[in-house]
Amino acid sequence: MYRYDEYDQGIVDARVDEFRDQVARRLSGQLTEDQFKPLRLMNGLYLQLHAYMLRVAVPYGTLDSRQMRMLGHIARTYDRGYGHFTTRQNIQYNWIKLSDAPEILAELATVEMHAIQTSGNCIRNISSDQFAGAAADEVTDPRPWAELIRQWSTFHPEFSYLPRKFKIAVIAADEDRAAMRLHDIGIQLVSQDGQVGARIFVGGGMGRTPMIAPEIRNYVPADDLMSYLEACLRVYNRYGRRDNIYKARIKILVHEIGADEYRRQVEEEFALVKQLGIDPPAAELERISAMFAPPPFDANASAEVDRGDPDFAVWLDQNTRAHKQPGYAIVTISLKPVGGIPGDASADQIDVMADLAQRYSADELRVTHAQNIVLPHVRIADLPKVWQALTEAGLAEANLDLISDIIACPGLDYCSLANARSIPVAQKIATRFASPERQRDLGELKLKISGCINACGHHHAGHIGILGVDRKGTENYQLLLGGSGAEDVSLGKITGPGFSEDGVVDAIERVTDRYLAVRTEGERFLDTYRRVGMEPFKEAIYG
Amino acid sequence: MVDADQTDIGGEPQLRFRDDQPHDEPAVTLDAFLVEQSNATAVRLEAGDDARALLPYLDRLALIEVSFPTYRDGRGYSAGRILREAGYKGELRAAGDVLVDQLPHMRRCGFDSFAPEAEIDAATLRRSLSRYDQVYQKAADAAVPVWKRRHG
Is the pTM of this model over 0.80? Predict the structure, then answer.
């Protein structure tokens, strides 16, 4: 885990002071709402339909128990007793009073947390692989690199008023658990001649014009990375479109001028920027990396566990993954109970997860982009106790990567941009497919719901995606099939005319029935779709 | 931190962080400078102009004014840094929708003179400019990034 030194702490403390000053000026009328808006946005404070929403950064999704407890404390003290974990591995609170916001930031600063750049047209929270440091397939732990980028991007003087928001993901494995190529910049750490460097993809994203990022450089050495990113951003800041908010993301620039021309401009800029001495020395990455050293694993930890309780066995098979250390497992805690709000956790549940992390997972938790929580380092022998505690807290849903493990944006229940509700649709689908046996029979099936074309619910990347739109004043849902945010990245295609809220649930059932009828042995839904194409599903849906 | 001189020149509020006399020649547009009046010593760049077009002439320019049509338009931050990185030593003025909360970033990008459309409250500005004594990146100002403080 990264630990702040006096410099990091000083910067976050100064931010608290600055925001206190800005809120005071807004409350006294010295700032208009229009002038205040970009300032509060850069601190993650949105004005929603009913109240302010505060989004707190969880850099690369990593937390310790003390930080997790603070998130519970904020939910209990300043919100209505719960928080909502987001697809950018952050947490947001939907019922915040403006006058409380400075105090919340002050409390967060006491545990080395903040809300810096969780919104606004700037470089957002850096996301990463939720299994970092625990997965067997990684080249290195990507988080030290993400931390280096976090520091470089924090209050970057040149890139705080970009044409549009800017999202960066860093992974270090071939299996992509972070939707890396659907980011403005996706970085895959790779090894070349024994040296770890960065493979750079630029111009991916979802929103109304989804794009998969093309590769711009196959290898950038560690010593050049900040210069290279600075060049990527500078070309965008200068030439990204500012005339139309819907064409302002970097994906549009890269698409319009082409990846080759964008690469040429970046290389030209990089040649100049590299001379400026803006890259931290190797010692800085080493300093950060030392803080991400693996926890002291027990080399003799047993890989045996009693599978006697059938409910436990189901959860074990579904929600745990292999750890690189023998005798350990990676646990994913599902925040998707049937009928619940995807990604929501109560203050008490947050405390339970913090306690479990402290006791059983080397004091570490992760937030996943699929809105679940991970305990990355659990001894296999401790899994029954962890499961028992999760069961008592209502957190033992055994549905990781199944159809009810739904990503959903807040939708029209909270968001002022939404055209349709997302949460009730997610609840209805989960209820329709509530039978655990049926879900397991359907196998891996990533279902993602957005309540408007901004695509916060990642519907383009869902094996099954749902997009809520407004059609002549009523909510209407389009269905998409065949998307993926993983290493086999693809964008979903719309099946045809949209549906009512109940109609879309029926349509999904027709799709899954057809899948069961035509799949071959071992084929996931996505594999079947890719093999047979859209037609059989269209026929099933529209007859 | 140098305190800014706040004076009125030609009716426009001005903030300067330079010791030399304000340049009083009116700035010409980039097009006019490149095509007609290449002996001018003051140029105004619009947000979409390419600051690099001025690089051959930097040693004879005394003032470059960069327009910020709205505070949301951040192209001028890159223009400022590009000019300073190329060695420009003259006055670099941010003009337009220049607000107190954006001003520290502009200082870091090399701007040392400001012509805001609306007057900036002096006390708020002082607090704003002195608030952060550490920065994470090297930019166009003299601030030492924390990685340098950590490792020398």
Answer: yes
**Contact flag B75-A121 (C-beta cutoff 8 Å):** no
Q: How many CB atoms lie within 10 A of CB A431?
A: 12
Architecture of domain A407-542: 2-Layer Sandwich (3.30)
For chain B, give every domain's residue range.
5-151
Q: What is the ipTM of this complex?
A: 0.94
Q: Helix or strand or coil: residue B12?
A: strand
For the stretch A244-286, pLDDT in tens is 999 999 999 999 999 999 999 999 999 999 999 999 999 999 9
Residue B148: list chain A partners with CB under 8 A. 280
What is the CATH number that goes with domain A134-289?
3.30.413.10
Task: Report yes or no: A452 and A468 within 8 Å, Cβ to Cβ.
Answer: yes
Evaluate whether B130 touches B30 at the Cβ level (below 8 Å).
Answer: no
Top-level CATH class of A6-109? alpha beta
Shortest CB distance from B109 goes to which of A157, A277, A281?
A157
CATH class of the A310-392 domain in this structure = alpha beta
Short-list A58, A66, A143, CA closest to A93: A58
The beta-carbon neighbor of A156 closest among B73, B137, B146 is B137
What is the rounded CA–CA span in Å between residue A343 and residue A395?
11
Three-class DSSP labels, A378-439: EEHHHHHHHHHHHHHCCCCCCCCCCCCCCEECCHHHCCCCCCCCCHHHHHHHHHHCCCHHHH
Q: With both helix axes pointing from N to C terminus, report the angle between B122-130 and A6-27 in degrees, rounded to the nearest 10.
A: 160
Which residue shows structure tokens 């939907």? A94
